[in-house]
């Protein structure tokens, strides 16, 4: 898992507002980016750092669940609360070994602590049934890989309920 920060010239206003409402203080927005492919993960991290302040990466869904406090049932509750409070958005690849991004989405949406965190699914495959299944299960958005800066802007607009 890797966590890095950077300065922002613009923030995802809605996520920032929601983050401020739920957490009551101004701190960096935190995006958890999950992808098993190192190159894709680094690309997503870089694009998000341009638009957001902080990105944590995970190489698979199981690592993401561990980070979110949903992996090991014996984790200390303070660590769980700490990480949950910091995550403003989860962006995950769909197709990963062990656990898919869709399965990660379902786990997040089943969690009382995490269900309000927006989840964006990415895939290099444009399969309408897969896209619809993810959106119906609570994904905020489904994005085609490889991600581009314009996609991050589209994501920001979508989160602000703008028309793309």
Essential attributes:
164 residues, six-stranded mixed sheet, 6 strands, transcription regulation, single chain, 7 helices, globular, Rossmann fold, alpha/beta, 17% strand
DSSP strand (E) fraction? 15-25%
CATH superfamily: Response regulator
Strand order of the largest sheet: 1-3-2-4-5-6
Largest sheet: 6 strands, mixed
**CATH topology descriptor:** Rossmann fold
CATH-derived architecture: 3-Layer(aba) Sandwich
How many distinct beta strands?
6
Structure class: alpha/beta
How many alpha or pi helices? 7
CATH class: Alpha Beta
Question: What number of domains?
Answer: 1
Poorly predicted sequence stretches spanning 5 or more consecutive residues: 4-26, 74-80
* Mass-distribution shape: globular
Mean pLDDT: 78
**C-alpha Rg, in Å?**
15 Å
Helix content: 40-55%
End-to-end Cα distance, whole Å, is 32 Å
List the secondary-structure elements in sequence, H or E. Answer: EHEHEHHEHEHEH
Give an account of the 3D structure:
The chain has one domain: 3-Layer(aba) Sandwich (Rossmann fold). The protein is 45% helix and 17% strand. The chain has helices spanning 13-23, 38-51, 61-68, 77-86, 101-110, 128-136, 149-159, and strands at 2-5, 30-34, 54-58, 89-93, 119-123, 141-144. Helix 3 packs parallel to helix 5. The chain is of the alpha/beta class. It starts with a strand and ends in a 5-residue tail after the last helix. Helix 6 links the parallel strand 5 (119-123) and strand 6. A 6-stranded mixed sheet has the order 1-3-2-4-5-6, sandwiched between helices. The longest helix is centred in the first third of the chain and has 14 residues, at 38-51.
């Amino acid at each position: 898992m890797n966590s890095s920060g950077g300065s922002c010239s613009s923030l995802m206003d809605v996520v920032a507002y929601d983050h401020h409402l739920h957490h009551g203080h101004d701190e960096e927005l935190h995006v958890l980016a999950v992808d098993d492919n190192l190159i894709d993960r680094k690309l997503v991290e870089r694009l998000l750092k341009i638009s957001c302040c902080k990105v944590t990466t995970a190489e698979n869904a199981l690592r993401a669940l561990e980070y979110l406090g949903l992996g090991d049932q014996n984790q200390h509750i303070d660590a769980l609360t700490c990480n949950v409070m910091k995550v403003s958005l989860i962006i995950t690849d769909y197709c990963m070994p062990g656990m898919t991004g869709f399965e990660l989405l379902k786990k997040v949406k089943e969690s009382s602590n995490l269900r309000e965190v927006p989840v964006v699914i990415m895939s290099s495959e444009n399969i309408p049934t897969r896209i619809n299944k993810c959106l119906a299960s609570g994904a905020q958005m489904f994005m085609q890989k490889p991600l581009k800066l314009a996609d991050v802007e589209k994501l920001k607009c979508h989160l602000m309920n703008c028309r793309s």
